[in-house]
Amino acid sequence: MEMPTSDFDLALTLDSGQTFQWTSLGKGFLGAIGARAVYVEQIRDILKFRGAPAKSIASYFALDHPLSEICASFPNDAAMQTACKFCRGLRIMRQPRWECLATFITSSMKQVAHIRQISLSMRERFGLRRSLGNLHVYSYPTADVIADLEEEDLRNCALGYRAKNLLATARLITSGEFNLDELALLRDDDLRAALCALPGVGAKVANCVMLFAYERLRAFPIDVWVERVLREKYFPRRRKLRRGELEKFSAQHFGAHGGYAQQYLFHHARKTTARRLSAPGS
């Protein structure tokens, strides 16, 4: 099947550090949307796909987000406009809540390549095998599957100290003590506070989950990359700058679509730094 798209870059979106389970295959990408095996590829403004209905594909990749309006709302400063131009077509996806939460709990202090490997190991060991013709992928293990494991099982997937946090969170959700769907009714501040009450969830992970699983587009995760950009581009003369000051500045400066601004700043910084480091003589 296929559908027309505009203002969408599939490869850019899947490589932007918001999801870690899609793999390059031929001209496109193979992965899972929930429990479905899905193949998707892009040829100019046409998105071709197999394994899921068009409605699910369009929702997952947030093709309804008014990207031109979002980009037009960004502050007109050099750092933001450079990142916006570099990342045009990158969209904030709508991810399954448990999968997103669990993945970002396991992402703490890890680089993107390591997070991808952990995700793959988790899927292959504890997920369900899903087929699409002769192609096979594994869905992300559900909270109840994780809750029945032992900490050592998760440590064997290279989770380290994160295993304890993921296991405890899965058991809270499976017991009914914590309901991820009910959290969608909360306002942003209350949602962030509720997520931060979970084992292994701090402000950065909570903001990632808010942005990628609850579509709170104002959420502004601050990791090492983004903090570096904010300090270098917006506060070059300030030696001492507390995280709280950066959070307050980001909320005011980037506004209602701060999550998009953050993702563009993050992806631009990560990719351009990698290019500099790999250049001859670096």
Write up what this structure looks like.
The structure is a single chain. The chain has 282 residues and is an alpha+beta fold. Among the domains are: 64 residues, TATA-Binding Protein (2-Layer Sandwich), CATH 3.30.310.40; 75 residues, Helix-hairpin-Helix base-excision DNA repair enzymes (C-terminal) (Endonuclease Iii, domain 2, Orthogonal Bundle). Helix content is 49%, strand content 12%. The strands form two sheets. The protein has a five-stranded antiparallel β-sheet. A two-stranded antiparallel ribbon has the order 6-7. Helix 4 packs across helix 14, helix 5 runs antiparallel to helix 11 and helix 13 packs across helix 14. It is globular and about 50 Å long. The chain starts with a strand and ends with a helix.
Topology, pairings included?
Elements: E1 2-4, H1 10-14, E2 23-25, E3 28-33, E4 36-43, E5 46-50, H2 54-60, H3 67-72, H4 78-86, H5 97-105, H6 112-126, E6 129-132, E7 135-138, H7 143-147, H8 151-155, H9 162-174, H10 188-196, H11 203-213, H12 224-234, H13 243-254, H14 258-278
Ends apart, CA distance between termini: 45 Å
CATH architecture assignment of one domain: Orthogonal Bundle
By CATH reckoning, the class of one domain would read Mainly Alpha
Number of strands: 7
